[in-house]
Amino acid sequence: MAWDFSTDPDFAAHLEWMRRFVDEEIEPLSLFYDDMSDDAWKQATEPLKQQVRDRGLWACHLDPELGGQGYGQVKLALMHEILGRCAQAPAVFGNQAPDSGNSELIAIGGTEEQKRQWLEPLLRGEITSCFSMTEPHFSGSDPTMIATRAERDGDEYVINGHKWFASNASKADFILMMVVTNPENPPHKAASFVIIPKGTPGLDIARDVYNMQHPYPGHFRSGGHAEIFLRDCRVPVANRVGDEGGGFVLAQQRLNGGRIHHAMRWVGQCGAAFDMMCERAVSRSTKGELLIEKQMIQEMIAESSADIRALRLMALHSAWVWETLGASKARVEIAELKFWGARVLHDVIDRAIQVHGALGWSADLPLADMYVRARQMRIADGADEVHKSFVATKQAKAYKPVEGWPSAHVPTRKAELRERFAAFLDHEAANL
Q1: pTM here?
Q2: Which of 89, 205, 291, 431 has its CA at 20 to 30 Å from residue 303's CA atom?
Q3: Could you say which DSSP state residue 64 is in?
Q4: What gap in Å lies between CA 7 and CA 19, rounded to an integer?
């Protein structure tokens, strides 16, 4: 019977090194992230990235021939649990969003020339990318409603449309965009992905959209989420990734693995919030008692501990199903993980804020920023409601409707089973 929660000793050593590296090198530097220019940050982090490369932990989500380590989903999940404790850590390990997902998509569907021109420098950290699917006037949870069109004109596509919440677009060297290339096809076979280089005529990156994390005009240090207009934007057909009309298949291959990575990073974030909450509970007093002696605080800590453990097991199990049975067999597990994980992330951080009071709400602790990011996760990569609907529909298919009483109706079942157990029932009656 194979039921093992242990980690391979050699890989466990890598994980222990990662924990120390994130806690002692990346996290202290991250405190000055907003105080540095892009060039200064690059200069500060390049030696750290080299240490990661020397350790053989760079871009582990890709196969060795593509510059990665070829780690499976379970090992990647354990790594992302550690990286999730610091928002800047994934970039130091070469697997930050959206670059990691975009590199997987190009690795799966790209031509050799696309890999040479875009994937290889992306993996080396020489360029950055953007993922653009969402549009402002159509439901982002229903990609079949995408309206941005790419019409074929000889060896080029002429693209017209309107995108927004395009992650990292304002800083990216290229945009990986989903556009409609085959409107005559069924909805799930109508769209394709194309690579649009920065500076392409007709590509107008209008603004970074102000949001809960960046509510006011100012510097979007991380690249933001941009609004884009495309007006007769010409892109070579050679820039299409994958088959024409194959965008939906590629999108799911990109997003589902990323959802496992997201969830394990959430476990790491929850762990950081939990540490802050517990430290506060054993340090702060009110009305003659430490907070940890208050039953309401004890409940917050206990609920958070159980939530984090459950989320971690759900994520690792989803990774195991993907790795063992294949990605298509893990769709329900990943959908459950997405909405459940986002809820746990929000709730644990919210409790940590509550335990800290006004300090938790202030920018003097990282909790307020973590809370805003957590709220986004109930929308990003598919709204909670979409995943819940998918899970419920898939699970219900295993059941058949019944007429009359439900199958668990006790009087009906006893009547059907009475003859089977008659000897015992008669014996029982005789002794009354």
Answers
A1: 0.90
A2: 89
A3: G
A4: 15
Residue 402, CA distances (Å) to 48, 412, 418 in order: 62, 13, 22
Structural domains of the chain ordered from first start: 9-110 (1.10.540.10), 129-241 (2.40.110.10), 249-396 (1.20.140.10)
Residue with tokens 């998509």: 105
Closest CA to 357 of 272, 283, 431, 251: 283
The residue type at 270: C
Kindly report the three-state secondary structure assignment for every residue of 60-74: CCCCHHHCCCCCCHH
| Cα gap 276→341, rounded to integer Å | 20
Q: Which amino acid, 319?
A: A
Q: Which residues pair with 196 in a beta bridge?
A: 175
**159 to 129, 179, 196: CA distances (angstroms):** 19, 8, 10
Peptide bond into 143 cis (omega under 30): no
Residue-wise pLDDT tens digits, 146-174: 999 999 999 999 999 999 999 899 999 99
Helix axes 331-356, 295-325, angle to 10 degrees: 160
pLDDT score for 428:
53
